[in-house]
Amino acid sequence: MKKLGIVLINYNNSDDTVECLRSIASSTIKPYVIIIDNNSKVKPGQIRLKQAYEKIFLYLNEKNVGFAIANNIGAKILRDRYDVEYIIILNNDTLVQENTFEVLLNSLENNKVVSAISCKIVDTNNNIWYAGGEIDFQRGRPKIKDWGIPKSQLKNNQSRFVTFISGCLFMTSMKTYQKLGGFNERYFMYVEDLDLSLRMVKKGLKLYYTDETSIVHKVNSSFGGKNEKKGFHPENPNLAFHFYHKMLNRYLVMKDHLSLFSFVLFTIYYWPYFIAKNIMFLLHGRFDIIKPSIEIVREISNAKNS
Length: 306
Fold this sequence. Notes:
By secondary structure, this protein is of the alpha/beta class. Helices cover 41% and strands 22% of the residues. The chain has nine helices and twelve strands. The protein has helices at 14-25, 46-52, 66-82, 100-110, 174-180, 192-202, 239-257, 260-283, 290-305; strands at residues 4-10, 32-37, 56-60, 86-90, 94-96, 114-122, 128-130, 133-136, 141-144, 160-162, 169-173, 206-217. Strands 1, 2, 3, 4, 5, 6, 7, 10, 11 and 12 form a ten-stranded mixed beta sheet that branches. The chain has a two-stranded antiparallel ribbon with strand order 8-9. Helix 1 links the parallel strand 1 (4-10) and strand 2. Helix 7 (239-257) runs antiparallel to helix 8 (260-283) and helix 7 packs parallel to helix 9. The radius of gyration is 19 Å and the shape is globular. The chain starts with a strand and ends with a helix.
């Protein structure tokens, strides 16, 4: 059996990490797990983590370095310490099935043209969160097939090649991950999986979605809380952080990867959307959006001049 390793990032939500480890412990394949703690206020206890799953290595960052850098640190530890052949980037607020890793590994092993793979991901209400994705270049974001519909209502959702794999569960060979340089560390959080998918597609590497297994994603536990108002919802307490990183990174990724003509088309959509969102947030009293919006414009202006 090929050696498999997982990277989990923990930030102020060790309860989710423990639950994730318990689900991994029930798997038919027992991978090595590297847990990178991004300077949580309350550090996860190694004894508690090992009680949930024995084959772990805990690494404590002295500051929150973000999603991309933390995963790259974890990948390096997996390579140097355990010499694994395959790596899975996995959100710590997920629950895997017993066969999840076996299905993913067999799919990669049996189909040599596949370079990266993911599976069906549902939220806690059993609605589709990821079921294969394609890159929407005009909007600068992935388009997820059947997003939000109940898993029980899925029709014609079959295993297939895709152009986008979510960083919630992203499996590839360690050799491929190293050749790509891992996640682009320019992006602190959000859209780094879009960038990685784009880089793989541009190199002619094949991304694959399998419908033969699934995992549960609790969604938006990255801030260490149970926030019901997510994303660009005007009542999201983390709206300013979310808007800044997602909108800025979306622009920078498209700037890096699109042709001049396609990028112009993207900006025709981007700026009206950016302005409309700001107006909507301000009408809802979210004046805290002003500072990150100004910073986005400043960063984009700097990127144009670089």
